[in-house]
């Protein structure tokens, strides 16, 4: 079982996987799509199951993730399951709309 779910926009894939590599080097097990979606498993169900099992969600925050409906859904699911959301801002961006609502009280890390 993973410790954290890493949520990112597809445009930020390389940065997200560098964050995953760093966390895993520190002994923090990560769940990240598409790497951890098992063969034959429905993608959406895999994400819901993973969010339910982890201790926290790491949000790779950028302009692209700020606009991504999928990232918003992942963050909303984590919040609804009372999982802490840990934003890692990789670009100078202010969260908008629903994303701002979900992470307004979270401690951010600028990377």
Based on CA inertia axes, which overall geometry fits? globular
Number of strands: 5
Structural class assignment:
alpha/beta
Examine the secondary-structure arrangement and name the CATH architecture. Answer: 3-Layer(aba) Sandwich
Distance between the termini: 26 Å
User: Spans with pLDDT under 50 lasting ≥5 residues?
Assistant: none
Strand order of the largest sheet: 2-1-3-4-5
Rg over CA atoms: 13 Å
Main β-sheet: number of strands, strand sense, barrel status? 5 strands, parallel
Overall CATH class: Alpha Beta
**Name given to the CATH homologous superfamily:** Toll/interleukin-1 receptor homology (TIR) domain
Task: Please work out how many helical segments DSSP would assign.
Answer: 5
What's the short story on this structure?
The protein is an alpha/beta fold and 111 residues long.
């Amino acid at each position: 079982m993973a410790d954290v779910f890493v949520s990112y926009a597809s445009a930020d894939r390389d940065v997200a996987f560098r964050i995953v590599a760093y966390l895993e080097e520190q002994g923090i097990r990560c769940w990240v799509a598409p790497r951890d979606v098992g063969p034959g498993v429905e993608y959406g169900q895999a994400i819901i199951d993973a969010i339910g099992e982890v201790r926290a969600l790491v949000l790779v925050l950028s302009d692209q993730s700020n606009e991504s409906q999928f990232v918003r859904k992942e963050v909303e699911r984590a919040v609804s399951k009372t999982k802490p959301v840990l934003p890692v801002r990789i670009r100078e961006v202010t969260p908008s709309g629903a994303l701002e609502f979900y992470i307004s009280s979270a401690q951010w890390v600028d990377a």
